[in-house]
Amino acid sequence: MAILSTPRSAVQLASKGRPLKEHLFRIALMASLAIALAFLAMLLLYVVEKGWPRLNSMLWENQPSIRRPETSGIQSGILGTLWIIALTAVMALPTGILAAIYLEEYADKTKWYNRLIELNISNLAAVPSIVYGILGLGIIARWLQFGFTVMTGAVTISLLVLPIVIISAREAIRAVPPSIREGSLALGATQWQTIYRQVLPASIPGIATGSILALSRAIGEAAPFLMLGAATLVRFNPEGVWSSFTVLPLQIYSFISRPQEEFSVLASAAIVILLAILLLMNSVAIWLRNRYQKRW
What we know:
Distance between the termini: 48 Å
Strand content: under 5%
């Protein structure tokens, strides 16, 4: 009995200090979260309060103007941003998801070239965005002669977010339980049928979340567009993929760099619109995740 009671007493002594450590760790986590949310709330309140006088229909109906900041708008920046994000989603998301499927389901991990691809994808995810801007300027804009157009910006931003899409999609596919694959294959389904009908639907919540986060990063980038020569003040809307363009981050940069106080108010209002677009995109990701999590 003494031998049996020794491990039990040791467990009891060890468990006495565990609740205190867990409680302190929980307090530290909650404090970190509270500090981050407090700074975010302060920033949002400041931007909304300063830009509130310009949060009206003229903001998204009018084109930008240097001479009349009180009636200046950001319509060209909004439409240019939507063009870039739409084309980026069309190019980067299918390519990234298919690449993730190959690396997780088909690639032989023992082959040196597959390991080299995985290493390069991880390295590219950490490359600064300004490097992609230089790449887009030298190869896409000049060597391929795309010029300083919407297509050039979309291809450059697609290359920027592609590693993030691949990594997030691989993690979502990897999280699918192996029993789902084994059960599908045992019932006579082919590997592609198993991936298409079982693995992909189960991994959609993670893929959607990672894709929206990647596009959220793309929508706030300004450095690559500065390298590509995108104009900071464009008074017309892009009419196609070969049109000149501007984006909201560049317009905000242009407004905030001017000395007049009216442009500072206009920049704050433009920041609110940019945050609203980000919030809408994240809301779509949350809705997709919750919808498919209920099914699976």
